[in-house]
Write a structure and sequence with these properties.
The chain is α+β, with helices and mostly antiparallel strands. The chain has 2 domains: 72 residues, no CATH class; 185 residues, no CATH class. 34% of the residues lie in helices and 16% in strands. It has 12 helices and 11 strands. A 3-stranded antiparallel beta sheet has the order 8-9-10, with helices on one face. The protein has a two-stranded antiparallel sheet with strand order 1-2. Strand 1 and strand 2 form a beta hairpin. The radius of gyration is 28 Å and the shape is globular. The two termini are 43 Å apart. The N terminus is likely disordered.
């Protein structure tokens, strides 16, 4: 903001010098009244408010004044600027202009893709609280992880740099918690909804290839993220708390447990580096996999 203010002040200085060259007596004039345009044009700018008034004197208004940077520290001015430079909708939300929970929900929707009659998030879930605001504990210690009977999350290899790419690994206890893991308006997909995704992409034998992101898969094949799902090979965490398969496996939980296992095994979906198959899998609820949400 200071740079912008000095830009306007410099503009006025040049203007003032030009007038004083023709009328030297004005250079020594002391002007105490800042209410007139003439006094402002003499370069007596003290603050942003004076800059705004000067722009009005010079008939610089609307978007032009906004572009010159005469912004008060309010979100309303910032919104006006984005409007002036034709930034709106999802792009304006990505600039961080989130004022309400409704804006937050709109931003989440910006990171979604329609596949058939479904709407999926295009990033793995990355939350640290349940829907009601209760904290989901981060558990790094493998000995603690293997004994858990409640929800928890971690980064692959306990490295936050991996989280920035792949999101968080959750055990199934977090998925099944009644407080809700998915944001409002979204839910964890059921086994049936995963099955429908495969059908929408031409069948499970080819769906996996269409779900893969353009990069991170580390083989010689080229993927173009045909579906927009942007699946990444983030690996897994096993029941003993160890990590494996990053760069090779992408796996996501469903909300459905495997029948007959007393909620000790839950169903998920996985894709591998080596082929294009979308696989249905049964995993121990103590394992760590990623989560994709589907719109209600």
């Amino acid at each position: 903001m200071k740079k912008i203010f000095f830009f306007v002040a410099f503009f006025v200085f040049i203007y003032s010098c030009s007038k004083n060259a023709n009328n030297p007596s004005q250079s020594s004039q002391v002007v105490n009244n800042l209410t007139s345009c003439d006094s402002l044009k003499q370069g007596l700018l003290k603050n942003i408010s004076d800059s705004v008034r000067l722009l009005s004197c010079l008939n610089i208004t609307g978007c032009d004044s906004i572009r010159l940077g005469v912004l008060k520290p309010t979100k309303q001015d910032t919104l006006r600027l984005l409007s002036c430079i034709k930034i709106s909708g999802c792009d304006s939300l990505r600039f961080g202009l989130i004022k309400t929970s409704q804006d937050s929900l709109r931003l989440i929707s910006c990171y979604a893709v329609g596949i058939g009659n479904q709407t999926w998030m295009i990033e793995n879930l990355n939350v640290v609280t349940y829907r009601n605001g209760d904290t989901i504990p981060q558990v790094s210690d493998p000995k603690v992880w293997e004994k858990l009977t409640t929800g928890a999350w971690c980064y692959y290899n306990n490295d936050a740099a991996n989280g920035a790419i792949y999101g968080k690994l959750y055990n199934w206890y977090a998925i099944n918690d009644p407080r809700g893991l998915a944001p409002k308006g979204w839910h964890i997909p059921t086994d049936t909804e995963w099955e429908n995704l495969g059908k929408n992409l031409g069948g499970n034998s080819v769906a996996g290839g269409k779900m893969k992101a353009n990069n991170y898969w580390g083989n010689n094949r080229s993927y173009n993220n045909e579906s927009g799902f942007t699946g990444l090979p983030g690996g897994r965490r096993d029941v003993s708390g160890g990590f494996s398969s990053i760069g090779f496996l992408g796996g996501w939980w469903s909300a459905t447990d495997e029948a007959g296992f007393n909620k000790l095994v839950a169903i998920g979906r996985s894709i591998f580096q080596t082929d294009d198959i979308l696989r249905k899998s049964g995993w121990s609820v103590s394992e760590g996999f990623y989560v994709r949400c589907i719109k209600d």
